[in-house]
Amino acid sequence: MKSKLVLLLLFLLSVSSNAQETLTLEDCYALATKNYPLSKQTGLLQQKSSYEIEALSKGKLPKIDVNAQATYQSEVIGFPTTLPGVEPLNKDQYRATLDVNQLIYNGGTIDANAKLKEAQTKIQQQQIEVSLYQLKSKINQYYFSILLLQEKSNLLLSKNELLLSKVKEVKSAVKFGAVLPASEQVLEAEIIKINQQLTEIKFEKIKLLNNLSELTFTKIDSETILLQPDFNSINTTRTRPEIAFYDLQNQQLEFSKNVISKSNLPKINAFGQAGYGNPGLNMLDNSFQTFYVVGLKANWNVFDWGKNKTDLKALDISKEIVTSEKETFELNNKMQLEELDYEIKKMEQLLLSDSEIIIIREKIIKSSDAQMKNGVITSSEYLTELTNLFEAKNILKTHEVQLSLAKSSYEIIKGK
C-alpha cells in the first residue's frame, strides 16, 4: 500500500512539473505595475509629504531662542555732573536672554501651505500613475506579437503532423508501385521547411519573451502559454489617469491662489523675553540684574504694489493652459478611439470571410487527398492545396490576434 502511495505521489509531482504555465494580459499589467521601479516612488512621495507638512505645522508652535552676548564699547552714556548714588556705566556689558515667540494669527497661511503641499504630492503621484499606465501599450506590443507566433507555431505543428501521416501513406504506395518515389521526397522536403519555420519562431518568441520579462520584472519561461484576452467579460471603465492629472493640476493652482490671497493678511505674534545682564533694563543700575519683557506684535503689509494681483493673474493663465492641454488630450483620445473602432469593425468583417475561405479550402483539400491516393494528381499538387489551406488558417489567426490587439488598445485609450 505504501509503495502504491509513493508511486502516486511521484506521478502527481511529474505531472505538475511538466504542466505548462499560462499567462494572461492582465497578469502582465499587474506585474508591471507592482514591480516597475517607478511604482516605489508613490509611497516615498507620501512619506516625504508627511514630513514636509509636519515641518510646516511646527510653525504654530512657540519659537524659543537662547541668546548671549558680551560687548565692549568705546563710549557709554554719561552725565555732565556726578549724581549721588549713580555710578558711571561700564564699557564692558553682558547679556543672556531666553526669547519666546508664539504665533497667534497669520490668516491661515500655514494651513494653506499644507494643503498646497498635499496637492503637489498628489500631482507627483498621479504622474507616476500616468507613466505606469503608458506601460500597457508597450506590454501589448510584445504580448500580442508572442501570441501571434504561438498561433503560427500551433498551425505549423498541425500541418507537420498531417504531412507525417501522408508520408506514411505515400511510402506504402511507393512500395507497391502506385506512386513515384519523388512524391515522398516532395512531402519530406516540406516537413524540413516546416521545422525551419518552427526554429525561427522559437528564437523570435524567446527574444520577445525576454523583452516582456524586462517590462514586468518577472522571469517568463519560454514554454509559458499566453492566453487570448477575454473581451466579453464586463470591464469597469474608469477615467484615464491623464484626466485626473490635469484636474489635480487645476486644484493645485487653486490652492496656490489661496496661499497668495492670505500672504498679505495681518500677522499677530506674542513674544516674551527673560534675561540676566549688566546692565539690565535699568540703565542707571550698573550691576547684574534679571529682567523680562512680554508683549504683542502685529505686522500688516497693506500695500504690495499690486504684486499679489499680478501673481493671481499669472495663475489664472496657468489654469487656462492646463484646461487647453486637457481638451487637446481628450480630442486626440476621441480620434484614436474612432480609428480603433473602424479597425475592430474591419477585422470582424475579415474574420467572417476568412471562415468562408477555410470551409472552401477544406473541401478542396479533401478532394485533393482522394485524387492523390488514386494517382490523379501528384503530391506537389496536393501540397499546394494543403499550403493554401494552412495559409488561410494562418490569415484567420492573424486577424484574430489583430482584433484582440485593437480591442485591448481601445480599452487602454478609453480608460481601463
TrEMBL record:
It comes from the Bacteria. The lineage of its organism: Bacteria, Pseudomonadati, Bacteroidota, Flavobacteriia, Flavobacteriales. One of its GO terms (molecular function) is porin activity. The keyword Heme does not apply. Keywords: Cell outer membrane, Coiled coil, Membrane, Signal, Transmembrane, Transmembrane beta strand, Transport. Residues 109-136 form a coiled coil. It is found in: Cell outer membrane. One of its GO terms (cellular component) is cell outer membrane. Belongs to the outer membrane factor (OMF) (TC 1.B.17) family. This is TolC family protein. InterPro entries: OMP_efflux (IPR003423), TolC-like (IPR051906). It comes from Flavobacterium sandaracinum.
